[in-house]
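User: C-alpha cells for both sequences below?

Assistant:
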Amino acid sequence: MNDFETQLGDAQATGWLPAKHRVRRLQRDVNPYCTGDELAPHSPVFFGRTQIHHRICQKLRSPSPQSVSLLGERRIGKSSLLNQIYQALACEDKLLVVKASLHGLSLKSPADFFAALHQAICQGLQLPLQENITDFADFKQFIHTQAQHYRFVIMLDEFEQLSSNHLFNADFFAHLRTLAYESKYCLGYLTASRQPLKTLCVDGGIEESSFWNIFTSYEMGLLSHSAATQLIHHPCHFSLGTDFKPDSQALLKRIGKHPALLQIALFEIWIDLKTQSPSNWKHIRRQLRDYFEQLWEVRSDAEKTVLLHILSKQTPTDKSTLEDLQLRGLVDENGQFFAEFFAEWLEQKKPKSLYEDGEQAEKKVNSVKKIYNSIRSIILDLRKDWKGSSKTQKDDEK
C-alpha cells in the first residue's frame, strides 16, 4: 500500500471551481451537510477561506515552490482546505503534488518514507520503477534530475504524527529541509498541524534539524460572517428550495462561525426543515460536548486562565494569549467566546475543573509538607546525634 496520492498538473485541467458553481452540484432533497470526514475537493459546502487559499497557492505555484505551514485547531477545516488547494493546483502545468495524511502512517523508517515517496513520484510522472530507492542521497539525485522538467509540492497532513515518531530523527528532517531549501530541487512542502512546527520539532527532540525555519505559517480560525452565512443558507436553498430558511441568527449566536460545528448543527436542522419539525437544540448541544471537552483539555494553563476570565466577565490581562485564542477561533473579534453553547458548557465545567485543580494543589501541598517534616525530623535527629557525639568527645578529653 502506498501512503501517498499524486496529481500531475495540466494547464488544460479543471482547477478549483468558484462556490457559485460548486453549490449547483447539490442534489435535490439530499442532505448536503457533512458531519464527519474532511470536505472533498470541489465540495459544495466549502465556503470562505479565500484569502488564505489564494496566498498558499501563490507560494506553491512559484518556479521553486515555497514551503507553508497551516496551523489550526482540530476540526477547524485544515484537511478540507488542503483538499481544495490540491484541486486548485490540478491546472498548474508540470507541478506534481504528492499528498499524504500521516494519521495511521504505515511507514516505519526514513528508508520506507523515501522508498514510498519515490514510488509515488514515479507513478505520478509515469516513469518506470527500475529500482526501489531507500537512501536519501539516491532520492536527492532522483529529484534533482526530475526537477529539470517538473516542480514538486509535498502535502503532509497531521504532521504531528511524523514529528513525534522517534523513528524519524533530526537527520531525517534535515534531509527534508535540504530538498526545500536548495532551489535546484524545485520542491516545497505544505504541512498541516495544530501546533507550530518549531514547537513540534522541540517537543520531538529534532529542533537541531532547523526544519521549521524555512516555512511561512498561516493560522486558520473562524469563518468570516459572510462565509458562515453562505454555509447556512446556500446549501439549504439549492437542496430544499428558497422557502426553507434556517435561523441564521440563532445559529451564529449558539454555534458561532466554526465550520465543522455549523455543519453538525445544519445537518440536523436540514432534517427538521424538511420534515417541518422544530429544531432540537438540546440534541445539537449534546453532540458538541466531546469537541468542547477536547478543545478545553489541550489548552495551556495561560489559555485556560484567559478563558475563565472571559467567562467571569473580567478583562484578561494576558493580551498575547488572548490574541492567540482569537487567531485559533476560541474567542471572537470582540473578545467573547466563539459560541454561546461553548460558554454554557464551560460554565458547567468550571466548578468541577476548579475543584479538581484545587484538590490536586492541596495534594501537592500536603506532599511537600510531608517531605518537609521528614527532612526536618532527620535534621533534628542529626543535630541530637552531633551534640551527643560532641559532649562525649569533650568528656574524653577531660
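Moving on to the next sequence.
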Amino acid sequence: MDWLEADEELRLIEAVQTCGVEPWLWPQTLALIEREFRCKAYLLEFSTDGYHTARYCSPETAADIIDLLNCIQAEADKSALAFLLFEAPLNYPYCKMQLLRQSARISTTTNGVCSSEAFSGNSEIAGAPGAITPLIRNSHQIVLFACVFNGYRPHEIDQKKAIPSFQRLARAITSSLMTSQKVERLSETAGELGLMVAYSKEACALVTPDLTLALTTPSFDALLQRADVFEANGGRLAVHDKGIDTALVSVAADVSSALHTPKGPLNAAESPPASRTLFVEGSMNRLVRVVLNGHVGDRHGTNGAQRGYVHIQVTTQTDAPDEMVQLLRNQFHLSQREAHLAHQLATNGSIPETMHQLGITRNTVKTHLRRIYEKTGTQSQLELANLLHGLCRLF
C-alpha cells in the first residue's frame, strides 16, 4: 500500500482544522480522510457514562467497532472500549491487532493484527489492521478516533509511516475539537451577555436551573446587598418571598426539563420555557415587580449541548419623576394628582395598590382614571401603561 505524500497529509490536516470553526464540515472531512488514508474513519463521541452520542458518527456506522471493542477483554476484566474511554492515555495510538489478541491483554505496541472469535459483527472489521486513540476526556464528553484499513492485511501496511501519520492527524482533530468547543462557549457567552445588555439599566440576573448566579447587573447586585427580596448564598440565589421562590423553582424546572428532553431537527418548533410575573412588597413598603423568563440556548450540532437560564428582572416602584409629571401636565393637560395616579398605575398595574400608595378611595381612582383616559386618548390601563413606558424612554 502506497502511503500519503506530505502534501496530501497537509491537505487533510487543513481540512480538519477548518472544522474547528465550521463543525458542520465534519462529515465531508471524515469522508476525505477515508479517501486519502484508504481506511474507514470513526470519530466517536461518548457521554461521561459511556453512551455514544452519535454527534459525529451515526449509530449504524459506529455499531460494528463499538461492538468489537466491547467484546474484547482488557485488564481487570474491563472491555477494550471501557479501557479506551476511561483509562487509556490521550493521543496514544493503540494498534487493533493488540486489542484483538486472544490473550485479551491491552498492549501499546504498534504492529500486527488478528481476529476475534468472540466478535459476531462485521468480520472485515475484525480482521483488518487499524489504530485507535482517545482524543478528549473531560467533564461532559469523551472522544475516540479510529482508522480501520479494511481490505488490507498487516504486512501491507507500513507501520513506520502509518502510525506517525495517524498520530499527527489525531492531534489535529483534538485541536480542532477543542477550538470548536471554545467557539461554542463564546457563542453561549455572547447570548448570555445579549440578554443582560438588553436590560442593562434594570436590576437583572441570569441563574442556571440549579439557581447558581451566572450574571448580574449592578442594580441587581444592590438588591442582593439589601437582601430584602433576594440574597446571594454561596454563589446561589436565595429568595425570601415564598411566592417568588415557588415560581422561580417552577420556571427553573421547566428550563431543566427542556434541556433534557430529546429534540427533533434543529429548526423544529419547540415550546419556550414558562415565564412568571409577580408583585411583592419590598423595603419601605415599595411594590416590587419580578419577571421570571426561562431561556434555552441554541444547540451546536445535531447532538450539541445546550445551556439554559432563568432571566430575572426586578422593577421597584418609585415616585413619579418631576420631569414625567411635568411632561404629562404639559402634553396632556393632566392635573398634578392625575399625573401621579397615571404613573403609579402604569408602574404597578394594580388599582388597590395605587389606592394604598396614594391614600385615596376607589371612587376617586375611577374618577381620575376616566379623565386621564379622555385627556391621553387611551381606553384601558394597558394602553395607558404602554404610553407612559414609551415616554419613560425620553428620560
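User: Anything stand out in the second?

Assistant: The chain is about 45% helix and 15% strand.
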